[in-house]
UniProtKB/TrEMBL annotation:
The keyword Transmembrane helix applies. Residues 99-197 form the Peptidase M48 domain. This is Protease HtpX. It is found in: Cell membrane. Keywords: Cell membrane, Hydrolase, Membrane, Metal-binding, Metalloprotease, Protease, Transmembrane, Transmembrane helix, Zinc. It comes from Rubripirellula amarantea. The chain crosses the membrane at residues 28-47, 53-75, 183-200, 206-223. PANTHER family: PROTEASE HTPX. Binds 1 zinc ion per subunit.
Length: 427
């Protein structure tokens, strides 16, 4: 019996439609690159560089406003605490994995997905959230290209789930992306030059020139991100699909559920501790978040132990702030820049939003989710549960109800994998 007929797949795309969407998005990339290069060359010829030399403030402002955020993103990635897989110590363990077993898993993923072994760097970061990423910036910033796996992923997920995530990120890198996104810097440089030229043409300087520059820069920054926003969800669906080709949809869906559950736990702990410490003038919200990150261990930890560890770190930080010198404490209070009433109102609003989320009891389908793999019949029951309760959420976090603009809601990602599990269209 085909139980798919009982499932409402409204809003769940087909693999073929997504592939066509991405193909159309990349169809004229080369033409837009040529147009941008021609426009940049024309502006370089039209701009009065003598005026730029004698009045550099506008030019510097243009570069900072439009190129600054992009360069900051790169600087944060470059400065992230990370190690290439081959540089990890022999003694380092990631739960049941070490560098050699992790390399073996990665090589197996390349083989199953029929991808070339280009010696693409695989980085392990110290981040404690269940997340990963892929970066492909072309040759100019080639030193940052690679796959980034948060260490917590390796501690909390099983080998097949880690492989599904590797496959997802390799999908971003090799197959499913907006080609023009790799040339985003061209758009930003064009925007900076347009801003400089516009200010020279209308002969504005000072504050008015800055306003014009900000408007032009904001427009080109928006343009540079437009394709990513427009096609982001299609790319995420296809990368989930690609990762599922390694070990089947079971490993991909179990990984998604664990990622969502981890986000829910971290979110609810942070919300509770923010509320408990709202009147504590020795701790800022930022320090509370930092304490949670610092006190969270790698791997599985029972919630009571996790709470105790975080509370201990919060007490330690509060005591350290209390013992600071008078001048240091005054400086600390001045820099904290907090409004207790606004903070309380924000926390109340967040708590109210969380309490209004009707959570699905999906754990009844997969009870031993920490140790036992998810089976296809359990996935089928989960899909039926989602179909029967369309207004319920998988997790008590606001993100589980709606998209962030790039990642589809978790329920739709699961339904997509189920709907397209036997699709005849090749990825």
């Amino acid at each position: 019996m085909n139980r798919d007929t009982a499932v409402d797949f409204k809003g769940v795309p087909d693999r073929e439609d997504l592939l066509n969407q991405l193909q159309q998005a990349n169809q004229y990339t080369w033409l837009w690159i040529v147009i941008r290069l021609a426009a940049i060359a024309a502006l370089i010829a039209l701009i009065s560089w003598q005026q730029v030399v004698f009045a550099p403030i506008v030019s510097v402002t243009a570069c900072l406003v439009i190129l600054g955020p992009f360069m900051m993103e790169l600087a944060q990635i470059w400065g992230k605490h990370k190690k290439r897989l081959e540089d990890v110590k022999e003694s380092t363990r990631f739960g049941d994995l070490d560098k050699h077993s992790l390399r073996s898993l990665y090589q197996n993923v390349l083989k199953r997905l029929q991808l070339p072994d280009d010696h693409l760097p695989v980085y392990i970061t110290n981040d404690k959230s269940l997340n990963a990423g892929a970066l492909r910036l072309g040759r100019l910033f080639g030193g940052l290209n690679g796959i980034y796996l948060n260490r917590q992923v390796l501690h909390k997920l099983q080998g097949e789930e880690v492989q599904a995530i590797m496959g997802h990120e390799l999908g971003h890198y090799y197959k499913f992306n907006v080609a023009g996104d790799r040339f985003r810097l061209l758009t930003l440089v064009l925007g900076a030059l347009v801003g400089v030229y516009a200010v020279q043409i209308i002969q504005l300087d000072g504050f008015l020139g800055f306003i014009v520059m900000s408007g032009v820069s904001g427009f080109f920054w928006y343009i540079s991100s437009l394709d990513r926003v427009r096609h982001g969800q299609a790319i995420e669906y296809l990368c989930d699909d690609f990762g599922a080709q390694v070990n089947g949809i079971e490993a991909s869906i179990s990984g998604l559920l664990k990622v969502g559950l981890d986000s829910e736990t971290r979110f609810l702990i942070e919300l509770e501790l923010m509320a408990v410490n709202a009147d504590n003038e020795l701790l800022t919200p930022q320090e509370i978040s930092q304490a949670i990150e610092k006190a969270t261990p790698y791997g599985h930890t029972p919630e009571p132990e996790l709470y105790d560890s975080i509370r201990l770190e919060l007490r330690r930080k509060a005591k350290a702030n209390q013992q600071a010198s008078i001048s240091g404490f005054i400086k600390y209070m001045w820099e904290s820049d907090r409004d207790d009433e606004d903070l309380k109102e924000e926390l109340q609003a967040r708590a109210k939003a969380v309490n209004q989320i009707d959570r699905m009891d999906w754990e009844t389908v997969w009870q031993d989710h920490e140790h036992s793999p998810l089976h296809l019949d359990q996935v089928e029951r989960l899909v039926q549960m989602i179909a029967e309760s369309p207004k319920k959420s998988l997790f008590r976090i606001p993100e589980s109800l709606s998209s962030d603009g790039i990642h589809p809601p978790m329920k739709l990602r699961i339904l997509y994998l189920w709907k397209n599990r036997n699709s005849p269209t090749k990825l």
